[in-house]
Every structure is written in C-alpha cells, then in structure tokens.
Amino acid sequence: QVQLVESGGGSVQAGGSLRLSCAASGYAVNKYCVGWFRQGPGQEREEVARMYTGGGLQYSADSVKGRFAVSQDDAKSTIYLQMNSLRPEDTAMYYCAVKIGRWLDCYSASSSYDFTYWGQGTQVTVSS
Q: Is 59 helix (H, G, I), strand (E, B) or coil?
C-alpha cells in the first residue's frame, strides 16, 4: 500500500505562487510514477503534471506549461508541484497520485484511471 498526503494549498491572488507537497510512504522502492491532477467545481479531472521518480520523464500540461513544475526530494520521499503565475482558472482541488511500475508504464499512462493510489487533495484558490 502507498499512502499519499498532500499539503501546501491555500488562497492566493492572481500572479502569486504556491508549492504543493505530496509525501509518499508505504512503498519500499523509490521509483514510481507520480501524477498531479486537479478538479475544479463542475469540471473534469485534469492531469497537470507527471514525473517518473527514477528519472527520464517529466510532463506538464499545455494549460500550465511554463508556470508549473514538478520536482522530487528522494530523501523525504516527497514530490512537489511548484505553481507560479497563478490564474483564477487554476482554482481547483489538487491531488497527487501514484502508479507503480517502470518508466514505460509511466510514459504510457493515459488517464487518471491508470493511477492506483491517491491523496486526499489540497485546495488551491486563486482570486483576481
């Protein structure tokens, strides 16, 4: 079992920054696929970033490219989502999710259903 705990959400004004954290535990191997997703009120869940913690894969959705970046701290088993130049349309509940597997499994994941373990979410609210 993998346990994920997100933190770092909050309320900011447009143009501000937040850094979300996703602390992972319960998995003995430090190579896995992590996705950051968000879901606003009445909206579909959207993947905004993905990385393979073993290296070689980082992805940002077009909607956040150049503003959001995913990174990791292996010592802390924590994945971060740095969010800059926030916009009101970034307002959503943000989730991290893990898919156990190899690099190719991470690369080929096509939807949120491919991710097995999910955190409880952290709310991000951006005001204009």
A: strand
Q: Which ranges in the chain belong to alpha helices (H)?
A: 103-108
Q: In this structure, which amino acid lies at residue 118? A: W
pLDDT higher at 49 or 56: 49
Distances (CA, A) of 44 to 4, 11, 87, 114: 22, 21, 18, 16
d(CA 72, CA 41): 29
64 by Cβ neighbours in 10 Å (0-12 / 13-18 / 19+) ranks as buried
**Average pLDDT for residues 85-96, to the nearest whole number?**
97
Average pLDDT over residues 120-124: 97
